[in-house]
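User: Hi! I have a protein structure encoded as tokens and I'd like to know what sequence might fold into it. I'm fairly new to this, so please keep things simple.
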């Protein structure tokens, strides 16, 4: 299903969980693995070539020699895991991280991008991190990527990357329908048990008990119909669930935990508000907190232009 996988890391001391996860997925699919490390700078424009030396902590210029030194260091630190597989390529660039990640992803026409929810060295780099917010690099990549983006919070055991239980979150929007179609293909590839989940928003005092039960039954029937129409020929077990609640991300995380879900698939509601693009609070909060990987799929019509 994935022939080219790209991952990004900002760590040089060790091979992090994001790279190891991307490597395992590449192995499963016999895919080419691309690993990028972007040298960040506190400057903008032409001065972005001035970066902090990873050994001395002093400011230096990202010369060809320095970039090769960083690349060799990364290759050495991850070599124990990468070299037995062999099908990988490392790139080190100076620039805006999200831009360099997307530039290489499009150049290589990758099928999947694997990233962490935020930079591992925000304080050291002088980057301000907002509580309960994913990093700006990940957000920018999700909004502009032409392929799914997997968010990895922690080390994932190899056996859980077989994705035996896949959860697709639905709110009946076009972008979630797009994510559902992708989820069906992935579940078929991995022979997964597919869990289709919807949370019915229930403001306090809005429904009587009978009205609530009728509304939930209606949504469940709608989901079942959608599954029958979209997943024709799908041979794996499918479970459709509708819960009531007020905060989608809490119910999604609760369901995923109670059902030992291996992968959560969500549609990105990339939109503009107050002249700022954002990916949607549910995607953001689930990506930050999920114990399993979260696959975010952005509908082609919602992708923000690279410029």
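Assistant: Happy to help. Inverse folding works backwards from shape to sequence: for each of the 307 positions I chose a residue that suits the local structure. Here it is:
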């Amino acid at each position: 299903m994935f022939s080219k996988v790209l991952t990004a890391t900002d760590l040089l001391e060790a091979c992090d969980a994001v790279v190891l996860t991307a490597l395992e997925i590449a192995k499963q699919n016999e895919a080419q693995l691309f690993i990028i490390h972007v040298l960040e700078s506190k400057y903008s424009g032409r001065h972005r070539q001035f970066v902090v030396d990873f050994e001395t902590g002093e400011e230096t210029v990202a010369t060809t020699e320095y970039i090769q030194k960083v690349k060799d260091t990364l290759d050495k630190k991850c070599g124990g895991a990468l070299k037995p597989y062999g099908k990988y390529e490392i790139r080190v660039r100076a620039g805006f991280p999200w831009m360099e990640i997307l530039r290489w992803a499009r150049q290589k026409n990758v099928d999947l991008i694997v990233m962490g929810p935020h930079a591992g060295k925000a304080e050291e780099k002088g980057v301000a991190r907002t509580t309960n917010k994913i990093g700006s690099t990940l957000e920018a990549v999700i909004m502009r990527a032409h392929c799914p983006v997997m968010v990895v919070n922690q080390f994932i055991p190899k056996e859980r990357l077989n994705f035996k239980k896949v959860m697709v979150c639905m709110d009946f929007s076009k972008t979630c329908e797009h994510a559902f179609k992708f989820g069906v293909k992935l579940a078929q590839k991995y022979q997964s048990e597919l869990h289709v989940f919807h949370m019915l928003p229930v403001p306090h005092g809005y429904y009587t008990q009978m009205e609530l039960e009728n509304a939930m039954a209606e949504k469940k029937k709608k989901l079942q119909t959608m599954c029958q129409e979209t997943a024709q020929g799908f041979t794996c077990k499918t479970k459709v669930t509708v819960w009531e609640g007020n905060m989608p991300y809490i119910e999604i995380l609760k369901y995923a935990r109670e059902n030992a879900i291996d992968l959560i698939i969500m549609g990105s509601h990339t939109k503009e508000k107050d002249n700022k693009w954002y990916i949607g609070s549910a995607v953001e909060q689930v990506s930050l907190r999920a114990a399993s990987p979260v696959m975010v799929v952005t509908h082609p019509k919602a992708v923000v232009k690279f410029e």
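A useful reference point when you look it over: The chain has two domains: 4-151, 158-302. Feel free to ask if any position seems puzzling.
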